[in-house]
Write a structure and sequence with these properties.
The protein is mostly helical. The protein has one domain. The protein is built from eleven helices and no strands. The termini are far apart.
Amino acid sequence: MGGLTFVFYKTGLFHFFMNKERMFAFINGLGPLGILGFILLQIAQVVAAPIPGEVTGLLGGFIYGPVLGVIFSTIGLTIGSYIAFALSRSFGRPFVDRFVSKAVMSRFDYLLHHKGAFLVFLLFLIPGFPKDYLCYILGLGHLSTMEFLVMGSFGRLFGTILLTLGGDFIRTNQYGKLSILVGVAIVGILVAMAYRDKIERLFRRWHVYSRRTRKRRSPRP
């Protein structure tokens, strides 16, 4: 842990993000600037990768409803993802090592050489993958900024919709629908966890195959 992440822990901001009531009071206290405050919260929870985004995602649906909640969350998540990606690209591996553990880096080291945007989309789409850490890792790789933003934004969208709907169901006391939504999310997470290693091995093999294919197609000097 280091840098901005360390600051978030030491100042108590990590615990602030874990407390839905405190964040709700904070945003309401901003009045007309509440939307900006919420977007900034989403940006911060991405840049400070250890902070879980589930609470802010639920909060968006609770305050703004299913449509605006998804829109505002997506704006914040996209900006936050870009900041993490840009910081990584600007300052390189020593900077990223302060945010991302060696264990996570070793799991996804193949992404540093992979150019497949569709692979990035899948990683952002699958539940249980450390999406905020991926933003830093991908900044060290070969994806263009536009590829990263498009694939990352659309990949996050499914999870954002689920969290926002959950927050909206809580606000409107639709606990039956919330239970169904939670069930769907749990099944998705369990399936992803059960097959995570196989999925990661498949991605690594895909990566190796893609590199070999590019080498065969590249003109020889």
